[in-house]
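Much of the work behind modern protein science is quiet bookkeeping, done one molecule at a time. The protein below has been through that process, and both of its lines are reproduced in full.
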Amino acid sequence: MKESNVTAWNALISAYAHHGDPLRSIQLFNRMRREGICLVKKDTFAAVLRACANIEALEDRRVVHSFLVNLSIDLDDVMTSTLINMYGKCGSLEDAHYVFDNIQNGNVIH
């Protein structure tokens, strides 16, 4: 591609997350941020959050979560559930409980 766009980045990040290479997915997400690509699509975050749930780097998970908060991205039920799952998988139950306690509408997908 002569010029990459958010849709192309989403597709690549999702593909790596879906096919068992979560670390590469997160690396691409970080590169996307560094290159200043607009990150307004929830699909990007959903894929990265799923990737983060499959790695042990708690700090990467917190960076993605804080990035969501800083961009004022509205967390829907799926994203909130993915955040809770992500923190739970790495054993950070305090963070998982914090997300759970701050759910706006109280619906969590199991």
Remarks:
- The two ends are 38 Å apart (CA to CA).
- Residues 6-101 form a domain with the Serine Threonine Protein Phosphatase 5, Tetratricopeptide repeat fold (CATH 1.25.40).
- The chain is about 65% helix and 0% strand.
- The CA atoms of residues 37 and 109 lie 30 Å apart.
